[in-house]
Write a structure and sequence with these properties.
mainly alpha; Cytochrome p450; four-stranded mixed sheet; two-stranded antiparallel sheet; globular; disordered C terminus; binds protoporphyrin IX containing FE; oxidoreductase activity, acting on paired donors, with incorporation or reduction of molecular oxygen
Length: about 450
């Protein structure tokens, strides 16, 4: 007989849905898993799910049984915005995903490509520094969240689409993320699709989809226009996809649009959130801020700015970024996976077609893996070799295994360079009258369980 993982009692029909606080799902799951264990079974309406919250169980899902666990659950919203799973992030496991994933790994996010966009990152970071500096003489308060989001978005737009961002990009990204975070009743109660129609969520999804389609079509048409001059930044991601499409009939327009949507969804907010948390933690820990700042200024001297070639010398700053990602992973539940076959995790049976949530946020705070897990101590990474290189499943902000973030290098390069320059260029302080204890550590609401 199968030995299923333990979990909270279920109610008829809704299962455990009533136990999941709607925002900050990773935190409600963490609370539940403290009671039921690091491999926990849930029932979300009719959908069986397992939540994994320890380094050991994550290793079994992401390494030992990576292949059996590497599909994605299909949801009403992710199927629609990904052009029917034509993308990479939401595509189910299969030949389409394998082919497109290969394109990501050998063409779009190679070390060579990432390096070729170094001048773009350096230029955008300097523009942000200038924008802040223009206000610094009068000690004007800056809204750093906005600055960091537009920094990350401009880097994404220039490297992916060959131009800086405009409002349309921000709008479409936001709408896309919001609809992915919307709860669709039919995902959990197959017979109740009409409720989504009455609530208007179905119509909103269709509306977002049409806008996405037009937006992507326009980007593609602009790139195909023979009068278009390639930007000085070199071949962007869309150029590369269109070049590959010419020689490979298997790459359709839907696939290209799918990858563009992945970039809208995953490309900017992730790095921006990491940077915002890094600055927040440093403001709360002035002695660590000073140490990171002194390191940068000591290494770079009077050059006026930090370049990417300087970053390898900044050992402490790199630890600040890691420590931030440990406590505040931008994708706290990674992207949900789905089992394709029966697997055993920690001795428990997990049937096929089970949704698996890997709680990277809880794993980063697990007292069995970390000393003083709640404390912000970049020094801990100075003393250890823990990294995102597939060896340590207690630190997995980019996921692991076949589905690991293919643009990990891009994310890291952006965060390290931007943080180094922010510390090099300014002496940061809180707005008048604000104490470090006043800093809000509330997290923004999560993407929904469907995200
Ligand atoms: C700090 C920045 C970033 C973080 C923390 C991050 C994190 C993640 C995580 C946790 C996953 C899921 C991994 C899994 O399922 O095991 C993922 C997947 C993905 N990320 Fe990132 N990401 C970042 C930046 C980016 C950027 C800049 C891009 C593209 C421009 C990107 C594109 C993708 C794609 C396409 C996938 C889907 C991979 C697949 O399903 O095969 N990410 N990312």
């Amino acid at each position: 007989a199968w030995k299923l993982p333990p979990g909270p009692n279920t109610l008829p029909i809704i299962g455990n849905l009533h136990q999941l606080g709607h925002s900050r799902l990773h935190q409600s799951l963490w609370e539940l898993s403290k009671e039921h264990g690091p491999v926990m079974r849930l029932k979300l309406g009719h959908v069986p799910a397992v939540v994994v919250s320890s380094a050991g169980s994550a290793e079994q899902v992401l390494r030992t049984h990576d292949l059996e666990c590497c599909s994605r659950p299909r949801t009403i919203s992710n199927a629609k915005v990904s052009f029917g799973g034509s993308d990479v992030t939401f595509a189910p496991y299969g030949s389409h995903w394998r082919d497109l994933r290969k394109v990501c790994v050998v063409e779009l996010f190679t070390t060579k490509k990432t390096t070729s966009f170094r001048p773009v990152r350096e230029d955008e970071v300097q523009r942000t520094v200038e924008s802040i500096r223009s206000r610094a003489p009068n000690s004007v308060v800056v809204n750093l969240s906005e600055e960091l989001l537009s920094l990350a978005a401009n880097i994404t737009c220039r490297t992916a689409f060959g131009g800086r961002c405009h409002d349309g990009f921000h709008r479409i990204t936001k709408e896309c993320q919001e609809i992915l975070a919307t709860f669709f009743v039919a995902d959990y109660f197959a017979m109740l699709g009409w409720v989504d129609v009455i609530r208007g969520t179905q119509a909103r999804l269709q509306d977002v989809f049409l806008k996405l389609d037009v937006f992507c079509r326009r980007l593609i048409d602009d790139h195909l226009d023979p009068r278009r001059q390639q930007s000085d930044d070199g071949e962007d991601t869309l150029d590369a996809l269109l070049r590959l499409q010419k020689d490979d009939n298997n790459i359709t327009d839907a696939h290209i649009k799918g990858v563009l949507v992945d970039i809208f969804v995953a490309g900017s907010d992730t790095s921006a959130s990491g940077l915002e948390w890094a600055m927040t933690e440093l403001m709360r820990h002035p002695e660590k801020l000073r140490r990171a700042r002194d390191e940068v200024r000591g290494c770079v001297g009077r050059k006026g700015k930090v370049e990417e070639s300087d970053v390898h010398q900044l050992a402490y700053l790199k630890c600040v970024v890691k420590e931030t990602l440990r406590l505040h992973p931008p994708a706290p539940l990674l992207v949900p996976r789905e089992t394709m076959e029966h697997v055993k995790v920690d001795g428990y049976d997990v049937p096929p077609k089970t949704t698996i949530y890997v709680n990277a946020w809880a794993i980063g705070r697990d007292p069995n893996s970390w000393e003083r897990p709640e404390a912000f101590e970049p020094e801990r990474f100075m003393r250890s070799s823990v990294d995102t290189n597939g060896q340590d499943f207690k630190f997995i902000p980019f996921g692991e295994g076949r589905r690991i973030c293919p643009a990990k290098n891009v994310g890291m390069a952006t965060m390290e360079l931007a943080l180094a320059n922010l510390l090099y260029s300014f002496d940061w302080d809180l707005p008048d009258g604000m104490k470090k204890e006043d800093i809000s550590m509330d997290e923004a609401p999560d993407r929904s369980i469907t995200g």
